[in-house]
Amino acid sequence: MQSPPSLGTENQSPFQVDSRREIISLLRGLKDSNQLISMLIHDGAEVFITSILDVDDNNNTVIVDCAPGQLANQRIIEAHRVSFEGLLDKIGIQFSTTGVHSTEFENRPALQFSIPSNLIRLQRREYYRINTPVSTPIKVSFSVELNDSVEILKLSLVDISCGGIAVLDERKILDCTPGKIYEHCKLDLPTIGLIDVALQIRNSQDLVLLNGKTNRRIGCQFFNLSNSVLTSVQRYIMKLERERNSKMTGIR
């Protein structure tokens, strides 16, 4: 299950969308592509993974999947502001609401709010980032100090770009202090091979998944990446893109 990344807080006014027709189109795009989106309350102190279930133009409503647990949903309903972040065709989408209510959708609990009057459509990544296969997770090995000894911690890769990677740390072991550098991390890329990289921690986000379990997503930047390793990363990204395009077009 992939989870979407935080999109940042730069000056976003040039990217604001006010057209209701375009807003509805983007929201329905997230729904139709079954994109998972982040639902944030208390300025991002709590993050839940959800998805859009329905966008009703006539009733001016958006319905999303509820969070796991009645108490979590109550905190969302009582929050002064609820923010949402997701990705649609590599474009960041952000919007928020000040009024979330409980409802039902297809005989199951859900959350409802009004269609936002504006949203942010933001494409700002320096590098093209692509999700890695969920069915066959790629592992990244970190050397970490645990119990007065050095151990190898293997984490699953979430996505990759020529600028860095994101990993999942379900056990929340890795020291994710921003700026910390891990030398000699081993990244095993299918058809490319094992590459040695230094990774610098850029950000981390604790996620509550739809099944109620928690996970930690950690964003890492490649540090002093050599041209030869960069070429290998580029080849792998191109391979993933070709495979994805083949699936979308039905060409094998």
Unreliably modeled segments:
1-12
Q: How many angstroms separate the termini?
A: 24 Å
Q: Structural class of the secondary elements?
A: alpha+beta
CATH architecture of the largest domain: Beta Barrel
Q: What is the 3D shape? A: globular
**How does the major sheet shape up?**
6 strands, antiparallel
Please give the share of residues in helix: 10-25%
C-alpha Rg, in Å?
Answer: 19 Å
CATH topology of the largest domain: Thrombin, subunit H
Task: Determine the number of helices (DSSP H or I, runs of at least 4 residues).
Answer: 3
Tally of distinct domains: 2
CATH superfamily descriptor of the largest domain: predicted glycosyltransferase like domains
**What is the β-strand count?**
17
Give the amount of beta strand, in percent. over 45%
Strand order of the largest sheet: 1-10-7-6-2-3
Q: What would CATH call the class of the largest domain?
A: Mainly Beta
Give an account of the 3D structure:
The chain has 252 residues and is an alpha+beta fold. It has two domains: 15-122, Electron Transport, Fmn-binding Protein, Chain A (Pnp Oxidase, Chain A); 130-249, predicted glycosyltransferase like domains (Thrombin, subunit H, Beta Barrel), CATH 2.40.10.220. The chain is built from three helices and 17 strands. A six-stranded antiparallel beta sheet has the order 1-10-7-6-2-3, with helices on one face. A six-stranded antiparallel barrel has the order 12-13-14-17-16-15. The longest helix is centred in the last third of the chain and has 23 residues, at 227-249. Its main location: other.
